[in-house]
Amino acid sequence: MRYFLFLLVAAITLVGCQKQSAAPPPASANAKTYKIHGTVQSVDKANKTILLKHDPIPGYMDDAMTMEYPVRADQLWDVITPGSTIDGDLVVDNQNTQPYWIENVIVSTPADPSQVPVNPNFAQIGQPVPDFTLTNQDGKPVSLHDFKGKALAITFIYARCPLPDYCTRMSTNFSNLAMQLENSPDKDRYRLLTISFDPENDTPAKLKAYGIGYMGNDKNYKFDTWQLAVGKDAEVRKVADFFGMEYHTDENDKAKINHTLVTAVIDPTGKVTRIFTGNSWTTPQLLAEMRSAVNS
Fold it and tell me: 59 and 161: one domain?
């Protein structure tokens, strides 16, 4: 097996020789740095992010996770491939417009990058979604079969999530789409479901208040297009596992849940048509996928 090792420090020396896009903001004085090691699952060169299955991060994250990270390594994007092993520095900077990223990257690329690690729980396109029963924001049961005949998008959040690029963005995207669909003549063909993976804290009443906050504080919103739901941990985890979504309570801060981001589109027959990982998808992209699911 051949290995190609590249240091970001060396890449930086080449920056002055080439035209570069605007540099991201530097780390603030309060930024913290942690060592990170993992295997790349997918690469988004356009947005300069990777989906990384990484080991526990000493001093920051006690559990192994699979998460999307921005990477500051302009000279390495032709080298980083699915299956690459990377070592680097995870910078966490809550005062930065980019609150976290990986830098000082060393990449080990396998000779056959097509050998991509597969999450055995990850839902495959075309698979039927197993039925589930949860409780929605109005305290009523909600199951997959309730959405038969409609295109359904599912995402996962917990209401206390402090990261603006994580649960907050998912809920903003869903609420924006819900508002858009309210004025659409074919709105009854589409449904949105947000599932909380924090049943200990996200009661139906709390989820209703959470959703109302995203719908312009409209206390009369009926939650017909967009619903929020929660259930017993075993039931929620069954749904999350099917879509390859991971979440674990942070051992150092019990109020924090380390988690990945997964948003799925399901066609009117209950089969998966698209899975978005990470947070780079947009509301128009989601709507386009749902329309495609309806017309497929």
Answer: no
Look up the domain containing 47 and give its range.
8-108
> Which pLDDT score is estimated for 17?
35
Tell which residue, 118, 119, 121, 125, has the closest CA to residue 266: 125
Q: Which tokens belong to 257?
A: 């849940």
Q: What six digits make up the tokens of 46?
A: 């356009």
Place of tokens 């996770």: 65
Average pLDDT along the chain, 296 residues, taken 10 residues at a time: 35 35 80 92 88 91 90 84 87 92 81 42 79 96 96 96 89 96 92 97 97 94 96 94 86 81 95 89 94 89
Q: Angle at Cα 79 formed by Cα 75 and Cα 81, nearest 5°?
A: 130
Q: Classify burial at 105, counting beta carbons within 10 Å of its beta carbon; exposed 0-12, middle 13-18, buried 19 or more.
A: buried
**Total domain count, the chain:** 2
- Is residue 127 situated within a structural domain? no
Strand extents, DSSP E, 144-292: 151-157, 190-196, 226-230, 247-250, 253-259, 262-266, 272-277
Report the pLDDT value the prediction gives residue 7, as an integer from 0 to 100: 33
Q: Virtual CA dihedral for 181, 184, 186, 192, nearest 10 degrees? A: 0
Please, which residues have CB within 8 angstroms of residue 20's CB and are 6 or more apart in sequence? 74
- Structure token pair of residue 18: 């080439």
φ/ψ (deg, to 5) at 232: -60, 150
Q: Are residues 287 and 158 in the same domain?
A: yes
Two tokens at 111?
Answer: 């000779």
Q: Is 22 exposed, middle or buried (0-12, 13-18, 19+ CB in 10 A)?
A: exposed
Residues shown for the chain:
296
